[in-house]
Amino acid sequence: MKPLLRVVLIVNALIFLAFGLLFLLTPWAGLYGALQLDSIRVQPAFAGQLLGIALVGLAWLAFHASIDGALTARAAKVSGHVEWVSGVIVLVWLLGLRTPEVDGFGQMSAALVGVVLVVLGLGSVRLSSAVRRRERAALAGAASADRAERKAAKKREEDIAVRPAARAPEATAIDPVSGRTVVTRERLDGGAVDPVTGATLDPITGRSLDPLTGREIDPVTGRRIEPVISDGIDPVTGRRIDPANGAPR
After folding, report:
1. From edge to edge, which strands make up the β-sheet containing 170-174?
2. Does residue 243 sit in the same domain as residue 184?
3. Which residues contact 103 (CB under 8 A, 6 or more apart)?
4. Residues 100 and 172 reside in one and the same domain
C-alpha cells in the first residue's frame, strides 16, 4: 500500500508543479490569452506569483516525501487535503456561482479539474490514514517483541545467577598427608587426574585412588588406605591392623 501512496504523491507533485508554474507566469498576459484563461488571471500579478511559489514548494515537498518513507504518509495527508479543498472551491465558484464568467469549454475544463482534484485529494487522505495505521501497528509489534526479548534475557541471567558454579577445568588440591599442592584436571565423570602420574585423585582429599578397588592410596607408603574398622582386625587375614600405616601387624 505504501508504494501506491508514493505514486499518488508523485501525481500530486506534478499537479502542484503545473499550477505553480502557471501562476508564476501570471504577468505573461499573452500566455493566458492563448489558453483562454484571461478571466481567472490573478490581479495584481505579484499575488499570482506568490501563489505559484507556494504551489511549487508543495510540489517539491511531495516529491521529497515520495522518496523519504518517514514523510510519505504525513505529506500525502496534507497534500490530499489541499487538493480536495481546492477542487471543491473550483467547482463552487466556476460552476455554482459562475464567477468569473467562462465559456462552455471553460466550464467543462473547470468541472474536470475540480473533480480530479477532489478524487485525488480524498484518495490521498484515505491511503495516508491506512499507511499510518499499519506503521503504528508495526511499531507496537516491534516494541512488544523487544520487551519479550528483554524479559527472556533477564530470565536467563537469573537462571545463571542461581545455577551452582562448576569447578574449574584446571584446579589445585592440597595433599592432606604430604602438604604438597597438586594440580588436577577435572574429568568428565567428576573425578580428577594427576597430570604427573596420570593417577585418579579423590576430588575431596586429593589422594590417589586404586583403579580396581576405588580406595585411597597413601602417597607416602603407597599402600591402600583401608576403611576404619571398629575392632582393628583385618577381616581377610584376621590379624590386627596397625592404625599408623594400615598394614597388618
Report:
1. 170-174, 181-186, 192-193, 200-201, 208-209, 216-217
2. yes
3. 36
4. no
Burial class (CB in 10 A: 0-12, 13-18, 19+), 152: exposed
Cell of 69: 518513507
Give me the helices (H) in the chain, please: 2-24, 29-34, 45-67, 69-90, 104-162
Classified as helix, coil or strand, 238 is coil
**Banded model confidence at residue 189, pLDDT cuts 50, 70, 90:** very low
Q: How far is CA 162 from CA 135, 151, 155, 157, 158, in A?
A: 41, 17, 11, 9, 6
Per the structure, the count of domains in the chain is 2
C-alpha to C-alpha distance for 125 and 121, rounded to whole angstroms: 6
What does the pLDDT look like over 91-150, one tens digit per residue? 888 887 777 676 666 677 778 888 999 999 999 999 988 888 888 888 888 888 888 888
249/244 Cα distance (integer angstroms): 11
Burial class of residue 23, CB neighbours in 10 A (0-12, 13-18, 19+): buried
* Domain finish residue from 109, 127, 160: 160
